[in-house]
Amino acid sequence: MSEVPAIRGRLIELASHDAAANMAIDEALLSSVAAGAPPTLRFYGWKRPTLSLGYFQPLAEAMAWAERTGVSLGNTGEVDLVRRSTGGGAILHHAELTLSLTLPMNVSDTGAREATYRNVHEAIASELKVMGVDAKPFRTLGTGAVTRMSYDSSGASSAGKRDEPFLCFQRRTDEDLIVSGYKVLGSAQRRTKGALLQHGSLLWSVSPHADVLPGIQQLAGRRLEMDQLVHGLQRRLKAMFEIDWQLGALESNEIKAAKQIVTQRYGNSDWTSKR
């Protein structure tokens, strides 16, 4: 591997946005990279606790979860609500680190998409190990090593999978990272002609709105520095993808596109209630 990566990428530093803006920015970046913008690595947080529904999840499941847990949803409630453009289970975004990686890619290249998914999770697991946190992919663990939290079956997915929990972090897929039996990282991908978006959530600390889901700080039993993880990931993803991440920002056309996407989709009640 060469010392200086041949490809120049854009790094967007950690910043918090509201729910609709976070989803819209990721979508705007997907379109922008497909049109020729540089590969982009973005770290972000959430201005308010947010429940993001997977694209295919019915709104009724979110309402049922809120009723069971006593959480009030919406702009005037305790927890915002947004529907993602990616699939999977609902995520309670609160005390977490979220990242998105947007790469130019041929949509037919299934192997590259799968490798990207694994490689990002491998980089995060490796950096967590440096920090003293042992995170392993679910596929490498026996079921006895994984904590299965109880849940109300009325909150399971209605899309033909009655045994699947409503919340993403109570589900398990092969590349999910597991610490002390609990899932701490899950990701999803969306592809378009010419580019791939992968965004993922790392549970940093437990949320009072979903206290059955411990974060890595609770599982490690000590305070961890998020900046250390972010900077370490930049280095690992630079080496892994041979991309030199240079500090940057959203371009004016991307900001304009994100605002339009908020109006059309993520900030629009018709989008949220479409299923």
UniProtKB/TrEMBL annotation:
SUPFAM superfamilies xrefs = Class II aaRS and biotin synthetases
What Pfam families does the record tag this protein with? LplA-B_cat (PF21948)
What domain of life? Answer: Bacteria
Note whether Cell division occurs among the keywords. no
Q: Does the keyword Metal-binding apply?
A: no
- Provide the BPL/LPL catalytic domain boundaries: 35-245
Keywords, sorted A to Z? Ligase
Q: Which organism is it from?
A: Rhodopirellula europaea SH398
Q: What is this protein called?
A: Biotin/lipoate A/B protein ligase
GO terms (molecular function) for this protein are:
ligase activity
Any stretches that span the bilayer, and where are they? Answer: none
